[in-house]
Amino acid sequence: SAVETGKKLAAYQAVNDYITPEHKVVGIGSGSTVVYAVERILQRPELKNIVYVPTSFQSKLLIIEGGLTLGSVDQFPEIDVTIDGADEVDEQLNAIKGGGACQFQEKVVAEAAKKFVIIADYRKKSTKLGIEWTKGVPIEVVPMAYKGVMKSLETKLSLKPQKSTLRMAVNKAGPVVTDNGNFVIDAHFGAIEDPTSLLKEIKLLTGVYEVGLFCNMAEIAYFGEADGTVSTLK
Ligand code: DER
């Protein structure tokens, strides 16, 4: 499909451009697009001596099953480059992440990197966050506090959400439980004019563990377009 081709082209281009044999530590994101990045890494034997740091159980399995060297971010706190997907990217390179409920470890590993590179298919390219991605801003919350967060989202933000929902699992009864043992609330705000301010306000609410807004973090974003080309945003 054009979407899968787009993911693959963006991932391959980003690996070719940003991972070199001189690198010591590389962060591997989570989701479906990053699978193509690992696929490309495995095609380049000269990248075998790099330590790869995961951002989820899924990402950890990708590294292990690829036979790549696994490292943890507390063991390797200085990461050369982290490559990860996103749910939506605006024109200032702000991103919504957490569609896969992995945004906490992703943000830790993205921040630990000298360069954070986003890879995505054309559906993720947007003018403002909340326009293309209509599933809300993923907010990881501590389970015992989730009702309090739901209330605070309604009463304490300058930008009120249209609705907030507890993310329910599909292949498991009950809510989605993250790799960190938490719940996810998806908060719908529509088009987000100022993601940095929204991030700060949400992060301060008691019970919030991490917010799926990555503002002023990415160095570049690669988009695999429907026509088979790759565009970049810097
Ligand atoms: O959970 C995340 O932030 C992931 O990076 C994710 O949302 C991107 O997933 P995709 O590459 O499968 O679209």
Automatic annotation (TrEMBL):
One Pfam family named in its UniProt record: Rib_5-P_isom_A
Organism: Circinella minor
GO cellular component, one term: cytoplasm
GO biological process, one term: pentose-phosphate shunt, non-oxidative branch
Enzyme class (EC, first level): isomerase
SUPFAM superfamilies per UniProt: D-ribose-5-phosphate isomerase (RpiA), lid domain (SSF75445), NagB/RpiA/CoA transferase-like (SSF100950)
Keywords: Isomerase
Catalytic activity, reaction form: aldehydo-D-ribose 5-phosphate = D-ribulose 5-phosphate
Similarity section: Belongs to the ribose 5-phosphate isomerase family.
Protein name (database record): Ribose-5-phosphate isomerase
PANTHER family noted in UniProt: RIBOSE-5-PHOSPHATE ISOMERASE
E.C. designation(s): 5.3.1.6
Keyword Coiled coil tagged: no
Gene3D superfamilies associated with the record: 3.30.70.260, 3.40.50.1360
Pathway in which this enzyme or protein is active: Carbohydrate degradation; pentose phosphate pathway; D-ribose 5-phosphate from D-ribulose 5-phosphate (non-oxidative stage): step 1/1
Signal peptide, first to last residue: none
GO MF, one example: ribose-5-phosphate isomerase activity
HAMAP family membership: Rib_5P_isom_A
